[in-house]
Amino acid sequence: MTFSVAAFCPNSGMFGTIVTSSSICVASRCAFGRAGVGAASSQNITDPRLGNRLLDLCEEGKSAEASLAQVVKETANIDWRQLGIIDKQGNTACYSGEKTLGVHNMAQGNNCLAMGNLLDNADIPAALITSFENSSGHLTERLLMALEAGVAAGGEAGPIHSVGVKVYSEYEWPIVDLRVDWDPIPDNAIPQLRKIWEEYEPQLQPYITRAINPEESESYGVPGDE
């Protein structure tokens, strides 16, 4: 069981995905992004190869819609997959195969899309979209708020144990890659991710500076750093 948001922020140029599940390490299989290209989700009976394939096609110049149509056409066992993609123009496309599990749905909004399966109710993706569209601030914060809104609207049919968020800026690596791969306490993973983000946010830019311009980087503030 999984629900997710993929989004683009035209003001910052950032792409991001956030996903949660009852299954372990969900973000390692389901969340994909690429600087200057787009963000994608591959979930349900998950094939991680499809997230990168969608982004490859977008990088070649295809739109989100054309990329998804090609993946659906060329992929065996596509009926088991649930896929979403947003491109650098903010175009979105999503797909749920005939064998998507349980209560499932998709929704598309302004620079965002949401999908879910094995949901408590079919309105969850719309709740994610509404939250994202009405939020402001850093893309990571907006994605996390959307996920919290999804939980408040009913969430998954079962307990949540893992969650992860990835955000890409102009660099080839994700500037945010935060995960709770497994929390044995039911429905505690998203609150744990919230705490991690609140700790990480003030340190986000210093870590970018250390990568791009180490001479200008701040003190590490750890034992042994003089």
Description:
The protein is an alpha+beta fold and 226 residues long. The chain has a single domain (2-216), classed as Glutamine Phosphoribosylpyrophosphate, subunit 1, domain 1 (4-Layer Sandwich). 32% of the residues lie in helices and 28% in strands. The protein contains 7 helices and 10 strands. The protein has helices spanning 26-30, 49-59, 64-74, 124-133, 139-152, 189-200, 204-212; strands at 2-9, 14-21, 31-34, 38-44, 81-87, 92-96, 105-109, 112-117, 162-168, 174-180. The strands form 2 sheets. It has a 6-stranded antiparallel beta sheet with strand order 7-8-1-2-9-10. A 4-stranded antiparallel beta sheet has the order 3-4-5-6. Strand 9 (162-168) and strand 10 form a beta hairpin. Helix 2 (49-59) packs across helix 3 (64-74) and helix 4 runs antiparallel to helix 5 (139-152). The chain is globular and about 60 Å long. The termini are far apart. 46% of the residues are buried. The mean pLDDT is 96.
**CATH architecture label name:** 4-Layer Sandwich
- What summary fits the major beta sheet? 6 strands, antiparallel
Strand order of the largest sheet: 7-8-1-2-9-10
CATH homologous group name: Aminohydrolase, N-terminal nucleophile (Ntn) domain
What's the overall geometry?
globular
> What is the helix content?
25-40%
Query: What's the overall average pLDDT, rounded?
Result: 96
| CATH fold-level name | Glutamine Phosphoribosylpyrophosphate, subunit 1, domain 1
The count of helical stretches stands at: 7
Q: State the end-to-end distance.
A: 48 Å
Number of strands: 10
- Helix- and strand-based class? alpha+beta
Unreliable stretches (pLDDT < 50, length at least 5) are none
| Helix-strand sequence | EEHEEHHEEEEHHEEHH
> CATH first level: which class?
Alpha Beta
Strand content: 25-35%
